[in-house]
Amino acid sequence: MSRAWDQDEARIFVEALFAKHHGEIYAYLVRMLRDGELAADLTQDAFVKAYKNYDTLEKDENARAWLYQIAHRVALDELRRRKIVRMVPWTGESHGAAPSAERLAMDLRLSGPLERALAKIPERQRAALLLAELHDLTGLELAAAMGVSHVAARAILTRARESLRRELAAEKELERAAEQDRDATFAREARGGR
Amino acid sequence: MTLPFRRRHNDAETSHDRARALSSRRLLESLDADEEAWLGGHLETCTECRTEDEGFAADQALLRSLRDKPIEPPRDLWARTSAALDAAAGIRGTLPFERAQPGRPGGGPANGWWRTMPVGMAAAAAVVLVVVGSAVLPGLVGRGPQGTGLTAVVTSAPGPTAITVDTAAIPAARVRADGSIDLFFTEVKEVCPISRPECVPAPSQHGGSTLDLQGAKASTVTLSPSNDRLVFESASGPSGEGKIFVVPLGSAGQPSQAPSTPGASPSAGTNPPSEPPVSGGPTPEPTPIGQIEILSGVTVVGEVAYSPDEHWLAFSAAPKDGSTGPDLYLYAVGGTAAVAVTSDHQTYFSAWLGNRVLASHVAAPAGEPGAPGNPNASKGPDASGNGNNGQGNNGQGNGGQGQAIEGRPSSFLFDPVTSTRTELVQPDVWMPVVDAHSRFVTYWAGTLRSTDGVTWRLGDGQVVLDGWNAGATTPGASAEAPAATDANASPEPAVGPAGHATPVVDSHVEDFRAKFDPDGIRLALWVSERAGETDGRLHLLVIDATTGALRPDEPLPGVPALRRFSIDENRLAWVSPSGQDGHESALQVLGWDGDTFGQIHAEQDANLLILR
């Protein structure tokens, strides 16, 4: 049963929610979007949505999964919006064409083979893996956060694990090839330096 | 995306599909007994599914390793969110100023976890900190380019109680665009639980002065322990490059009286200084801004550090023209010039141990470039001469390809008072750092690698923690020992690591820097996985003083940090690289009171520099 929306109560509730969970929500959004500044904006949006929709939360004990559900939707909306934006023909204007230093630095932090593999798998699968393995959501919480049934959440997670395995194998192959290139270059330089 | 051979779920599921689904599911939640038994039986007979099962588990561990790369939210996130909530309140409810204060009595229903939080957590007392230049920071002269009117508005969100700590002040500087620096000290008295770095306002600063160090190489700017002298290498500007200066800081911008001289002049050593450090020598002639040039034609390699008694300054430096590798230099405070105390061109300053120098030497195999006497030796110090990398162009990824030379490091203690050199007994000890109580040492245990015999990178080995054998005499006692007459003489037997080395870094290491806290049980370790980078990760490890073992929990498990950091009484300070969470560089502090640790963001600016 939903509660009535009361401004003061909603504000106190969201402030407490923020104090407890803003770090993990921000981290989840960073890993989903690979953009720290955007993740900060969306974290803010998620808590504002939580505030506005406080009356839709049925039980306080579900607050964390409910907040993840909001954050998950916010992230998917953003990713969907990006896809639409990418379809718009380029008109010659350079809005955001050059990545910022901050963006580059964040990319670097998220640029290990695992992160790259994660970035390549479908968004819902990526979300399932992050929520289950990094954010410790239970099966039921995962289902709630993703807005699907418990059975569907398990299935998404299984597909996510399969996708990740495949992409990790591809990343390792790429790394192996790059390492061979580096070694060959170093050997050439060493011979040339004598 | 699905595998090509994979069937859709809810179609007639094959036993392999079912096994895969259960393998995945049991990593999320427990299976019932029947499912567990079925899966176990299937895995016994199906190699492919068993491989898949093991792969899922390995990937889970890999995913969870991402927890070691914490992602911290921007410090202004609450301020932004709070403002957005206020705006939202204006839309959905009453205006923000009409809203009753959170946490007021009777402000909400009686149950729910968030309502049971302590009053201090729920009370969102809006603390607005407005810092406007030096007006409210007496003694702080000028700000950085972006800081000429720094206005920080920090609204404190409800949060846990701050942790009170008694820390040593942090000397740091902002480097201005014109090359001058604003010196300041940060006093941290309270830190916040790690998850809530904004629970208290930013700590105060004091004691600033502005120094014109035009052309200084930032990585070499070092403050003395008494905060009365600054050392730097000029890299450009009117002073010209390749000169090392000492600037007295008696009063802001003015040269001070020459300090008292060391108690004894260096005695004849194995490699007597060409110009002995002066004891009671003439008062140096300061430049108009008080600078004393102590060396020229060189570039600093690695760190510059004063001895604990502040009588000496040590560093390694190589000729600016790149003709050789570095030698160890010492400068007697109050003297006129720094002098080389080695001449092998392969010696790197590591750290002070008491008032003796710990340094490392690398030897190439006979006949190789870089080996003593080899005419092909070295064209220049390359990356090791950039003053940014005490280990040279470190690296271990080559795997011995091509014509790489393997170098064998060794380390020694040098007493500047007696010129006594004491070799450490163990081989392959590189850049050792010993705690102030001489109980523990950390170092690179392994080889080095080079292609030219001058620029050395980490080879095969690892960063380790070991016990420390101080030898027959304590470090301080060596000053009274007779002067050595042979470079390889070891009047103190068995000085060095105890031989119980424990690796402290799992990941690949290209460069590292280590320092102990004054208690000698907390080890700050900066590690970079890429050669020549100033960005790396900073760890704080805690040692069990009784067993010498590392405690399993790391108070600081590898945060992004620039190479220079400072560890002192009850705190570790570092500068986070720009771009972290979309912010400029920031001065970060981890403080502790015994085993209770907390963190705080102390300052944010584009060009921050820790000075000691």
Task: Set down the secondary structure blueprint.
The complex is a heterodimer of chains A (194) and B (612).
Chain A: H1 7-33, H2 36-52, H3 63-87, H4 101-109, H5 113-120, H6 123-134, H7 139-146, H8 150-193
Chain B: H1 15-25, H2 33-45, H3 47-64, H4 77-92, H5 119-122, E1 163-164, E2 170-175, E3 181-187, E4 190-191, E5 204-211, E6 222-223, E7 229-234, E8 243-248, E9 292-296, E10 298-306, E11 312-319, E12 327-332, E13 339-340, E14 347-353, E15 356-363, E16 405-415, E17 420-423, E18 429-434, E19 440-450, E20 457-469, E21 496-497, E22 502-503, E23 511-516, E24 522-528, E25 535-542, E26 556-562, E27 565-568, E28 571-576, E29 586-593, E30 596-604, E31 608-610
Helix pairs in contact in B: 1-2, 1-3, 2-3
Describe the overall structure.
The complex is a heterodimer of chains A (194) and B (612). Chain A is an all-alpha fold and 194 residues long. In chain A, 77% of the residues lie in helices and 0% in strands. Chain A is built from eight helices and no strands. Chain A has helices at 7-33, 36-52, 63-87, 101-109, 113-120, 123-134, 139-146, 150-193. In chain A, α7 (139-146) packs across α8 (150-193). Chain A is elongated and about 75 Å long. With 612 residues, chain B is mainly beta. Chain B has five helices and 31 strands. In chain B, α1 (15-25) crosses α2 (33-45), α1 (15-25) packs parallel to α3 and α2 packs across α3 (47-64). The longest helix of chain B is centred in the first third of the chain and has 18 residues, at 47-64. Chain B is globular and about 85 Å long. Chain B starts with 14 loop residues before the first helix and ends with a strand. Residues 1-12, 91-160, 251-288, 371-401 and 473-492 of chain B have low confidence and may be disordered. The chains are: A mainly alpha (194), B mainly beta (612). Chains A and B meet through α1, α2, α4, α6 and α8 of A and α1, α3 and α4 of B.
